[in-house]
Every structure is written in structure tokens, then in C-alpha cells.
Amino acid sequence: MATDASLAKLVKKLPKDFLAGFATAAFQIEGSTDKGGRGPSIWDGFSRIPGKTLDGGNGDVATDSYRLWRQDIALLKNYGVRAYRFSLSWSRIIPLGGRNDPVNPEGIKFYSDFIDALLEAKITPFVTLYHWDLPQALHDRYGGWLNKEEITKDFTNYAKVCFQHFGDRVKHWLTLNEPWCVAVLGYGRGVFAPGRSSDRVRSPDPVNPETVHPLLRTGGDSKTEPYIVAHSLLISHAHAVKLYRDEFKHFQKGEIGITLNGDYYMPYDDDPANATAGQRALDFHIGWYADPVYLGHYPEYMKEVLGDRLPTFTPEEIALVHGSSDFYGMNTYTTCLAKNGGDDEFQGNTIYTFTRPDGTDLGCQAQCGWLQAYAPGFRLLLNYLYKRYKLPIYVTENGFACKGENDITVEEAVNDTDRINYFKGNTQALLDAIADGVEIKSYFPWSFLDNFEWADGYGTRFGVTYVNYQTQERTPKKSSAFLMKVRLYSPFIIGLCLLLEGGGSRFHRKFGESGPELACLGRGGSTKWEFGDWMARRKRRHCKRVRVLSWSGDGRRKPGPTAGTRQTACVYSPDPRILGSSPRMWLPSTLATHIFHDTDRLTDVFTLFVRYI
Ligand code: GBH
């Protein structure tokens, strides 16, 4: 496996506008479900029903981020992220959800302040409109996603309110998160809200059917409802995109798309039937949504097996859906081996396994049964999607829940080696995919914090930050330090760090009272040299905070700082947010050393990481 240093070197080659940060979702972190004028969502009630979540946890408090958001942003800033993906709670913005229902000014203000604070911290907001928390009122009023006509209008109206209030500052929009999960888990398997399925033990018929909307008179139908819901989701998404493109894009100048879940399905062995099975699994997980959006039709295989259970697009609908995403939004976690057989329709009648024919496991097992770490699959999937759908890819989620992490102390949990290995492998795979020619524009590990993991409750932890749910204390795990160390979050602040004699005070003037945080990152490997400490002492005078993350030379001992020798050096960053319009800032320095004349070595050996505090 690559060393951290060699990874860090590669990471520097990422495109200049690459967005790296963390992802979260409103219901999983906000809590305060009855505060600030918020209306209930389908997850509020569902998660409170005994038996629906593994540990009985619900979303009432979650990570309390509705109250602790300033602290959260401070931590994100500390992590050095360039972007943050989060979702808006529809029922915070329109408590009853509908197009004729009032907008909640407190909800608007909450997100507006949040976005301002992110921008203030130089963090790019990446906003999901819908991450599964449908306003309960819309479900009750007309059956929610089951009712295409109504939900399309209400979702588009909700999107419009968001573009109007936040689109001046938000330039990256996602309409829906993982429609497959909404349709299959919410209306097929019944394990997610609203919990509908054909299984009458799981989802009984209503006690007084005459009092509910006609679409809700039974407990559900796993054979038809998921496909109806998926169709509504696609069309609602497409309407929101059209609205953005017609009325907002020309002056707000952002981009908009959908994000799909999808893992890679490798054939179990070289039996051609298993290769076909792998493709069927990809069709049912990914093609169901991606083929209409990017290619203009449902996958052939789905039409074939589902017959008239699969809704058909009217010509107007498909014209709207086809081409309705500016990019490919990708959430992915794992790779499975696909075997022909089984009767699980949602899996494309394919059997999934992590066990290879020789009995070994594909990768490291996570807390959740569905997740093993297998980095080569990530690279293969990136290649598959790019070849098939031909658009730049935003990786909007990718993460790992260490097995047993909830059963150990926080001191133990922060040593999240399996998560570090997962990110190490996948960062390498991402870079390899870029080298393969795949255009990749972001990487958002899931998740910033441990949080409400839906039907798993709080026992499954995906965060790079440990959350103590009694005290709400946040403790960074080592995986967060790993991601900082490979410089995923500031790949193009390449700079030199000769900030001496006046350099610091120039910085001070430039960045004002708060001062930047300067950190010197070495390339790993050899001697920790006194320069690090010296620089830290030196700069403390000028900058509020200096952190020498690591320092090392290339094995040879370098000449130390020599007083009185003036040399010219600069901090270099093509990122205009760091130094304004000029890519470099010259600094006088007194560091005598020949290696600094060689810019390549310099950027290699000395990397200055400049961030605002
Ligand atoms: C993401 O979904 C979600 O966007 C995020 O909210 C969540 O917290 C995160 O993953 C971690 O789970 O065994 O048939 O029930 C991940 C995609 C697809 C993964 C469905 C689990 C389970 C399929 N998920 N899959 S099944």
C-alpha cells in the first residue's frame, strides 16, 4: 500500500477546483425536530416507532447540530476542508411542505446564517435539497412520493424557495440523495420511512382506511410502489433542474444534479452467467436512475422483468429527465461479488456475496453487513460510470463504519485503523482513476461526525469525528488526521515557507488580526529537524496559531536557519481564496539554504499550508 507521503504527493496533482470535504444530512445531525418552527418529517415518527431502529434511537437530538452548528463549522475549518456537503430539511423551510403552505422564516434564517458562516470560513457549500426527510404533511395529504402530480409541484416549489433564498451563495446543488434508497428501502423493503411494504407484519393496513388518502389505504405493495415512487422522484428532480436552468442559472451561475447510490458488482468468478448477473445488479441499482437521466430511458433489463409495473415516461417527461444533471453525482461504499440466481428483484435477481470462491473475504468487514472495504472496486466503478455516462463525477459520499466502534471507549475508538485503511485505499484508487482518464471533481467522505445512521440508530458510527451522545462532545478520530496529512483538503496550496524577517508581519498585515494558520507539512520519512520548532516559535509572534504538523527532510540534514541572510521566497497558491488575485506573495527571508532555489524540491519538501482561522 502507498505510503502517506507518496499519496500526499499524488494528491497535489488533483485538479485545481477539486472539492474535498465531508458530507452529512439534516435528519442525521440536526436534532431539534420541534424547534425553530420546523414541521415533522416522515423520519420523525418512523424512528420513534419501537423496532424501527436497531437501538431504539430517533432523530430528536442526533448530534444536536441545529444548536451546535457554530462549533461544527469551527471543527470543519480546523480540518481544513474546502467544501461541506449537507442537506436542507424541507419541513424546516416549509413546515407543511406544500406549494400553498407558508415558508418558515426561522428555517430560512438558520440555513442562511449557516451558509454565511461556511463562506466566511472559506468552505464551499454543497447542498442537497432532499435527503429522505419528506414533510409528514405531504405523505398524509396525498401519499407523498406515491402521488406524482402533487409531489412534483411541491418539490419544485420547495426547490424554488431554496434557490431564491440561498442560490446567491450556493453554487453546487443536488436535488435528491440516493433515490434507490427512498424507493426500495422506504416502499419495497419497508426498513426506511415511510416503512411501506407488502409485508403486513412490518407494514399493517391502516385501522381506518376511509380516513386516509386513497393511495395509503393499504400498508403498501413492494411489487409496484417502489417503481411508482422512483418515477415521481425522477420527474420531480427533473422539474427542479429545469426550473433552476430556466430561472436561476443565468445569474446565479451554479450547477445542479442528482446523486445516486451505487456499489460495484464484480462477477463472482469467470462464469459468463455471473458477469451478466453483475450487469443486472448495476442496472437495478444504478441504471434505474442513471440511464433515464443520462441516456434517456430505463434499462432494457428492467423493462423486461418488470413489464407494466415499470411506469413509462411520456415524451414530455423523458425530454425533461434526459440530460437533467450537470454531472454524475456518486455515493459509493463497497464492492460485492455477483452470482447469478436468487429472487431478489431489487438486486436484479442476483446474489451478492463478499466471499470469494476460495472462501476468503473480499475486504475488511465493517459494522454493517453490507460493507467491506475493497478499493480496486472503487476504481473500477469510477471507470464504469465515466465510460457509460460520460460526465465528470462528483464523489459525494464514501465512508466506512469500523466494526464494534460503538462498543469501545472513545480513547479506543479514535484509533480507527480500519477507516484509515479504507480512506488510504480509496484515495489511491481515486487518484488511479484520474490517471485512467476519469474526470473527478470532488471527494466527500461520509461522514464529518458519527450520526443517526437511519435504521441502524446510533450503534453504527461512520464519522471521522467521534460523538459522545450523552455530552455531545466531539473528538477527532485518527482518520481525520490522516485525511489532513495526505493534504486531501488543500492539494493546491503549494507554497514555500520561508517566513522570516518581516515575512510574518507581511502576512499579519495581509490577513489581519486573526492571522492565518500556518502549518508546515513535511514529506514524511526521515529526521524531524529543529526547523519545525524554530519556525513555530518564530511565527507565533505573527500568527495567532501555528501548527507544525510534521517536518522532515529528505534524509540529509539541512542547514538550519541562519540569522541575517536575506533571501527571497514566496508563498504560492493558485487558489485565489488564499492570496487574492495574485498567485504568489513574496516574502523576504533569512533562511539560507540552496535547496530553496530549486522550486520543485521546495514544493516537495516544504509545503506550507495556509488557512484562515
Ligand atoms: C448513504 O447510503 C446515505 O446517503 C447516508 O445517509 C448514510 O448515512 C450512509 O450511506 C451510510 O449508510 O442491505 O438492501 O438494505 C448508502 C447506500 C444503500 C448503503 C443501501 C446500504 C443497504 C442495502 N446504502 N444499502 S440493503
Outline type:
globular
Q: Which small molecules are bound?
A: ligand GBH
Strand adjacency order, main sheet:
1-2-3-4-5-7-12-13
Low-pLDDT runs: 490-613
What is the name of the CATH superfamily of the domain at 11-262 and 389-491? Glycosidases
Which sheet architecture does the biggest sheet show? Answer: 8 strands, parallel, barrel
DSSP summary, beta strand count: 20
Strand content: 15-25%
Distance between the termini: 34 Å
Helix content: 25-40%
Quick synopsis:
38% of the residues lie in helices and 16% in strands. The protein is α/β, with parallel strands linked by helices and 613 residues long.
Descriptive account of the structure:
The protein has 613 residues and is an alpha/beta fold. It has a domain at 11-262 and 389-491: TIM Barrel, CATH 3.20.20. The chain has 21 helices and 20 strands. Strands 1-2-3-4-5-7-12-13 form an eight-stranded parallel beta barrel, surrounded by six helices. A three-stranded mixed beta sheet has the order 6-8-9. The chain has a three-stranded mixed beta sheet with strand order 17-16-20. The protein starts with a helix and ends with a strand. Ligand GBH binds at residues 25, 28, 177-178, 181, 185, 261, 331, 333, 370, 397, 446, 453, 462. The active site is at 397 (nucleophile). Keywords: Carbohydrate metabolism, Cellulose degradation, Glycosidase, Hydrolase, Polysaccharide degradation. It comes from Tulasnella calospora MUT 4182. Residues 197-216 are annotated as: Disordered. One of its GO terms (molecular function) is cellobiose glucosidase activity.
